[in-house]
Amino acid sequence: MTDTVAGHAGHMDAIYRTQRHFYDLTRKYYLLGRDALIADLAPPPGGTVLEIGCGTARNAITAARRWPDARFFGYDISEAMLETARTNLKRAGLEGRVHLARGDAMFDEGASLFGCDAFDRVFMSYTLSMIPDWQAAIRLAAKSVAAGGALHIVDFGQQEHLPGWFRAGLFAWLAKFDVTPRRALPVVLEQVAADEDMLLDFRAPYRGYAWAATLKRRTA
């Protein structure tokens, strides 16, 4: 682990060492669009699903219950969050179906962490707004998608159809937690889609509160 990666990992652990104990209880009120993303995954029977930035494993558990025929994998840079994730998986009885590892979305690929060449579905839920080099993270995630598979993303939008005071207040509050909504996300997604020969579907639900996107790889 490089000094840069170790520094970011330590920073994330410092943020979540306490928050992880009540993270899921509070985030359900403002991390909008997560369950819609999970519903859209629809992995093939026996397919593989990778979550980048799996946190407490809340999303992986929800997805594994919804899609019982798929195999699930997840990694996160924060060992503190992974500790909670392992506890949650054990409590849910899903230790054998959801496999976890520690990794950095800017540098690590699911293939190297889990020994899979590629994944049928890859998803990132409210992670890009906390990753320093989020563009690199998207590019790595896209490369992990198998032929005919898809990368699903949801994160904070620019609140473009909501009152200005709401946007200002939300962004100021998010900044306290080192969260930065990515204004350039649509442009970067278009570039990645072109470079990877993928089909992009971009949406702005909840009046732009969230931005959601799917990058689909063509069938070989």
From TrEMBL:
<keyword id="KW-0489">Methyltransferase</keyword>
<protein>
    <submittedName>
        <fullName>Methyltransferase domain-containing protein</fullName>
    </submittedName>
</protein>
<dbReference type="InterPro" id="IPR029063">
    <property type="entry name" value="SAM-dependent_MTases_sf"/>
</dbReference>
<dbReference type="GO" id="GO:0032259">
    <property type="term" value="P:methylation"/>
</dbReference>
<keyword id="KW-0808">Transferase</keyword>
<dbReference type="InterPro" id="IPR041698">
    <property type="entry name" value="Methyltransf_25"/>
</dbReference>
<dbReference type="Pfam" id="PF13649">
    <property type="entry name" value="Methyltransf_25"/>
</dbReference>
<dbReference type="GO" id="GO:0008168">
    <property type="term" value="F:methyltransferase activity"/>
</dbReference>
<feature type="domain" description="Methyltransferase">
    <location>
        <begin position="49"/>
        <end position="149"/>
    </location>
</feature>
